[in-house]
DNA sequence: AATATTCCCAACCGCCCCAAT
DNA sequence: AATTGGGGCGGTTGGGAATAT
């Protein structure tokens, strides 16, 4: 059953990558572009398996990767998208183009999961404290609300920023930025042959029905232009007034509020009211909208306000 | 200062999908 | 139709760094 893992071959090196290996890999990709990973170890002499080369590139060396210091908005998006998509990190990462799925997954597992559970616990505590004299419904674990799992974990009381990186890999990435910008769009993202955002959105809804969790939204923002446009769409301050306030997402609201409280206490309420993820939610969940994705990329705030789709 | 414990993240592992044959 | 193998994804782990004792 199953093939032996490609990295089980004799002579294949494991463990941390050295700066020298990074330079070899980056140089090769700079010349040939990402893809055809099987040929990378052969052609470079790297004693790494193809999979390891791909992961090193996509998770660490690829230009444009932002490391550490997740902003409150990024945290909010991750929480919200996780509630919508589950642990489909690649799909979630497609909405945060500067973050890798691995980075998001790690951040979720080490920070956000704990924060959410803490918020749940705190909220439940306060609810049960009130319950003796009140009859309101509990705010969490309500099947009619957002579907945050009760198994999700608790939160520390404060946000602590991730460590700053000043790695050699980052420097290598910076060297590559110029090259990447000047090369063709197809060479920038390794999955340049992937389906269009329109098709991806359609496939997402159908794959949900089929129980297929593979690659749902991965291609949604696959070209750089689309990514940048969606990024600009997600600048909450610029578009907040356009979106109706999302309902039934107490955890995301609380998380954003908590994070904002630390970042900028005065803006908490404003940010909550501006939080636009209802758009993503609707877009993801409403098959009918999938045919308008490309148009959405070009929406101005004024247009989105008047668009009957919302 | 030394040791123990906890935290974090880069990297690996195993499974799955799908195109090629 | 069945097989093969490359590539992608999510889950997990190992080791170094940070923190606590």
TrEMBL record:
Q: HTH myb-type domain spans which residues?
A: 9-65, 66-116
Q: Which UniProt keywords apply?
A: DNA-binding, Nucleus, Repeat, Transcription, Transcription regulation
Domain called Myb-like: residue spans: 9-61, 62-112
Q: What GO CC annotations are associated with the protein?
A: nucleus
Its signal peptide is none
**Compartment(s):** Nucleus
- Residue stretches of biased makeup (Polar residues): 133-152
CDD domains (UniProt xref) = SANT
Write out the ranges of the annotated region (Disordered): 133-153
Domain of life of the source: Eukaryota
Gene Ontology biological-process entries: response to auxin
Where's it mainly located? Answer: nucleus
Q: Name one GO molecular function term.
A: DNA binding
Q: Which Pfam families match?
A: Myb_DNA-binding
Q: What is this protein called?
A: Myb-related protein 306-like
Source organism per entry reads Ananas comosus (Pineapple)
Q: What lineage is this protein's organism placed in?
A: Eukaryota, Viridiplantae, Streptophyta, Embryophyta, Tracheophyta
| Gene name of the record | LOC109709293
């Amino acid at each position: 059953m199953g093939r032996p893992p490609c990295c089980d071959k004799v002579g294949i090196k494991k463990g941390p990558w050295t700066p020298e290996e990074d330079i070899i890999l980056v140089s090769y990709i700079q010349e040939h572009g990402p893809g055809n990973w099987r040929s990378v170890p052969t052609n470079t002499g790297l004693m790494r398996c193809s999979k390891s080369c791909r992961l090193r590139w996509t998770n660490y060396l690829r230009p444009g990767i932002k490391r550490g210091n997740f902003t409150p908005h990024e945290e909010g998006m991750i929480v919200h998208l996780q509630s919508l998509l589950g642990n489909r990190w690649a799909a979630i990462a497609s909405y945060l183009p500067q973050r890798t799925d691995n980075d998001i997954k790690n951040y979720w597992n080490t920070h956000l999961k704990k924060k959410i559970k803490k918020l749940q616990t705190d909220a439940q505590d306060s609810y049960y404290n009130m319950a003796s004299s009140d009859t309101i419904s509990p705010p969490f674990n309500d099947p009619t609300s957002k579907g945050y799992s009760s198994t999700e974990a608790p939160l520390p009381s404060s946000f602590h920023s991730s460590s700053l990186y000043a790695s050699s890999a980052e420097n290598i990435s910076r060297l590559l930025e110029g090259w990447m910008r000047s090369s063709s769009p197809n060479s920038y993202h390794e999955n340049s042959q992937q389906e269009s955002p329109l098709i991806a959105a359609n496939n997402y809804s159908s794959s949900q029905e089929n129980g297929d969790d593979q690659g749902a939204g991965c291609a949604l923002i696959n070209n750089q232009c689309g990514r940048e446009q969606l990024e600009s769409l997600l600048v909450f301050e610029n578009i907040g007034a356009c979106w109706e306030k999302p309902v039934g997402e107490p955890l995301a609201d609380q998380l954003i509020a908590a994070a904002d409280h630390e970042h900028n206490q005065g803006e908490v309420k404003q940010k909550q009211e501006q939080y636009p993820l209802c758009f993503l939610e609707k877009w993801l969940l409403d098959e009918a909208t999938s045919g308008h994705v490309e148009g959405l990329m070009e929406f101005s705030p004024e247009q989105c306000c008047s668009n009957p789709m919302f």
